[in-house]
């Protein structure tokens, strides 16, 4: 019969037990997360008239706006060798994926507060369900983007196959930051308040709608999103195969950072519930 | 000593909370850092603005046993259930659980208002750690138990709170946990459902399940639990049989009531309050009141003016003061003289079984049936302890069915 012991000791005193519990929870996370994901889709559809159309509408409208802007030739900045609308759209979609991933843990956990305070359930399930939506939305947006690249006559090349790798790194970085933000944000409301301000500033400091000026390249590379976003975009838009400097390093660190932030949240979990 | 059949062992359990929100958030952050940096465990003392929500609590629960947690609001009952459910961490002490724990702490939690009852069954089962494939064979039984009928296909947002309770209880009940934690959830259901739940809990206990029940309903506690704990401001103040625990709890409540009630002795008589009851006693032959023995009820009153058409009566109540078991009222008019006097009534056979009771009395005007003076309704009633000389087949049977009064009968052969 399974035996559970609760004490005041930190789980890190017995790291093996701690990691075994994390692993045991993963199965539960998958089961609940999947049901939550399906539920979120169902709820979204049931309460709206347009239903599933809402999944495709936002990226389609964004795409269309940029197509019209491109046609009217207001925006003919020679940013790179691909048409500017496609260049911007690819950047914006990738940035959106990153921001959604970053917001996902705090958003999901905040909205499930009532349940988390009363029901013993791995919190990862809610985050996983949210992350599944982020991935789902990112894939839809990439689909729209591919349509537009063809429309603008950008060829599809083999580097496209590498793009998911870049996207995963970007989402992992976002989720890692998101776990830490959730840890702080479930305690202090300042996080929710300040996040939009910081994200706006971050957007401007990241070469999303422009190419980084060569003179400041060193500074831009201090921003961990830069190498991930530049590389993934170039893979998407028939660019060179070689990754931007620092890509491998940042991608690797993102993965490790994600794992550490996740474990940190798990340690914090009982203290957060006591204050929900 | 924990044995093979012990499913829950709680040792010196303590949990502190903070009274101030900001300070509590700051402590939270510090505790989280302390988790990640496990040094020597800090002394488990109280920091500024903290209090013990639970302090130094120890108990055990064995398989097939039901334990009632009794206490006033804020005594730490819900904290204890949250600790047992692993939602929050102890600050000192330990909890050892064997088997799977199911909790019915808040019924509405985890139900999605837009989804139908049927869909929510799967959702809730998943939250309790049971997958779709395992729920499917149980589905007909669960739906049958809810008794919701066609409403099972309706979105849960249109459910009444009682219907939500039915749904949630049905799911948790059918997943067969080894330990079931129940927190005051039966109160919202209707009588039919309460009966169903009580029956289910008995069956669950008979099948080897263990149960911890938090409830303010004495009849639920007595129906299900053999043992009871009384918590007072986070401390365990009594541990014994459920009936004894309830008695202890009500006695405590009563003591507090008398402490805070204005002194009834030497009441100021006025035209609006012409009669006052000064004292109420029940005396038997010896120091202990025996079941079935002869006793005398004595009421001491003070009257401002003589009362012509008065009468008096007394009533025995259950220890929680909610149910009047029996009593008597003198339907003949009698004269009350001005000044301090006594009224007595002789009972040849006290018709109560062994246990705790309350005695209330009143003096009334017989013409209008308006009470002139009352004792035990607004202020503290007299507390009685009725004993039996020795345990017999008869008294054991009385205890088993929780019989309150006795009847004089003649069995035909």
What does this structure look like?
- The complex is a heterodimer of chains A (276) and B (413).
- With 276 residues, chain A is mainly alpha-helical.
- Chain A has 10 helices and 1 strand, in the order E-H-H-H-H-H-H-H-H-H-H.
- Chain A has helices at 15-46, 53-71, 84-111, 113-118, 124-151, 163-185, 190-205, 217-220, 225-236, 247-273, and one strand spanning 3-7.
- In chain A, helix 2 packs parallel to helix 5 and helix 6 runs parallel beside helix 10 (247-273).
- The two termini of chain A are 32 Å apart.
- The mean pLDDT of chain A is 88.
- Chain B has helices at 21-36, 77-84, 117-127, 132-135, 139-146, 161-174, 191-206, 218-224, 242-260, 393-400, and strands spanning 6-18, 50-62, 66-70, 92-98, 101-104, 179-183, 210-214, 227-232, 235-241, 275-283, 289-290, 295-303, 307-317, 324-329, 334-336, 339-347, 355-365, 371-375, 382-387.
- The relative contact order of chain B is 0.10.
- Chain B is built from 10 helices and 19 strands.
- In chain B, strand 6 (179-183), helix 7 (191-206) and strand 7 (210-214) form a beta-alpha-beta unit.
- In chain B, helix 3 (117-127) crosses helix 6 (161-174).
- In chain B, 27% of the residues lie in helices and 33% in strands.
Question: Could you give a short description of this structure?
Answer:
Chain A contains ten helices and one strand, in the order βαααααααααα. Chain A has 276 residues and is mainly α.
């Amino acid at each position: 019969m399974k035996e559970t012991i609760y004490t005041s000791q930190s789980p890190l005193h017995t790291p093996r037990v701690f990691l075994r519990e994390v692993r045991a929870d993963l199965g539960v996370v998958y089961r609940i997360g999947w049901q939550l994901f399906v539920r979120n889709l169902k709820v979204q559809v049931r309460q709206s008239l347009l239903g599933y159309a809402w999944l495709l509408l936002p990226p389609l409208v964004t795409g269309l706006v940029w197509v019209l802007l491109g046609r009217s030739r207001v925006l003919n900045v020679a940013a790179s060798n691909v048409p500017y609308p496609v260049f911007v759209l690819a950047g914006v979609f990738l940035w959106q994926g990153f921001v959604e991933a970053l917001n996902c843990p705090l958003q999901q956990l905040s909205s499930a507060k009532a349940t988390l305070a009363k029901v013993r359930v791995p919190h990862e399930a809610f985050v996983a369900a949210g992350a599944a939506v982020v991935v789902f939305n990112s894939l839809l947006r990439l689909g729209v983007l591919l349509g537009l690249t063809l429309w603008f006559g950008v060829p599809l090349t083999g580097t496209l196959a590498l793009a998911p790798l870049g996207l995963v790194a970007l989402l992992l970085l976002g989720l890692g930051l998101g776990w830490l933000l959730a840890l702080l944000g479930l305690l202090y409301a300042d996080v929710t308040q300040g996040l939009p301000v910081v994200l706006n500033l971050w957007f401007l400091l990241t070469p999303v709608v422009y190419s980084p000026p060569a003179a400041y390249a060193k500074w831009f590379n201090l921003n961990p999103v830069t190498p991930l976003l530049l590389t993934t975009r170039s893979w998407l838009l028939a660019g060179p195969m070689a990754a931007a400097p620092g890509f491998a390093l940042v991608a690797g660190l993102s993965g490790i950072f994600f794992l550490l932030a996740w474990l940190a949240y798990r340690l914090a979990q009982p203290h957060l519930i006591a204050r929900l | 000593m924990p044995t093979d059949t012990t499913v829950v062992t709680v040792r010196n359990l303590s949990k502190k909370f903070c009274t101030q929100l900001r300070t509590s958030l700051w402590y939270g952050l510090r505790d989280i850092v302390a988790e990640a940096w496990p040094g020597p465990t800090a002394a488990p003392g109280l920091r500024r603005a903290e209090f013990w929500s639970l302090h130094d609590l120890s108990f055990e629960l064995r398989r097939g046993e039901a334990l009632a947690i009794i206490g006033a609001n804020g005594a730490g009952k819900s904290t204890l259930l949250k600790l047992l459910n692993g939602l929050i961490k102890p600050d000192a002490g330990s909890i050892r659980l064997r088997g799977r724990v199911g909790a019915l702490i808040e019924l509405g939690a985890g139900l999605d208002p837009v989804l139908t009852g049927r869909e929510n069954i799967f959702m809730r089962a998943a939250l309790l750690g049971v997958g779709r494939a395992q729920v499917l064979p149980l589905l007909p039984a669960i739906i049958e138990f809810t008794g919701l009928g066609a409403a099972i296909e309706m979105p849960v947002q249109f459910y009444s709170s009682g219907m939500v309770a039915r749904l949630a209880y049905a799911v948790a009940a059918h997943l067969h946990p080894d330990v079931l934690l129940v927190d005051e959830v039966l109160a919202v259901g209707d009588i039919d459902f309460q009966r169903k739940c009580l029956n289910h809990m008995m069956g669950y206990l008979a099948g080897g399940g263990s149960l911890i029940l938090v409830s303010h309903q004495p009849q639920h506690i007595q129906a299900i639990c053999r043992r009871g704990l009384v918590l007072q401001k986070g401390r365990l103040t009594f541990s014994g049989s459920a009936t004894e625990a309830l008695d202890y709890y009500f006695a405590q409540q009563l003591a507090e009531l008398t402490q805070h009630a204005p002194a009834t002795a030497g009441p100021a008589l006025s035209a609006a309050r012409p009669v006052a009851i000064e004292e109420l006693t029940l005396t038997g032959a010896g120091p202990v009141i025996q079941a079935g023995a002869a006793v005398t009820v004595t009421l001491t009153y003070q009257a401002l003016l003589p009362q012509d058409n008065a009468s008096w009566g007394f009533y025995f109540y259950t220890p929680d003061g909610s149910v009047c078991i029996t009593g008597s009222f003198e339907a003949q008019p009698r004269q009350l003289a001005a000044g301090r006097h006594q009224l007595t009534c002789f009972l040849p056979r006290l018709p109560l079984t062994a246990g705790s009771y309350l005695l209330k009395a009143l003096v009334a005007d017989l013409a209008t049936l308006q009470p002139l003076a009352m004792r035990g309704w607004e202020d503290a009633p007299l507390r009685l302890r009725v004993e039996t000389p020795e345990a017999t087949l008869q008294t054991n049977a009385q205890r088993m069915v929780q019989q309150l009064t006795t009847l004089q009968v003649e069995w035909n052969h």
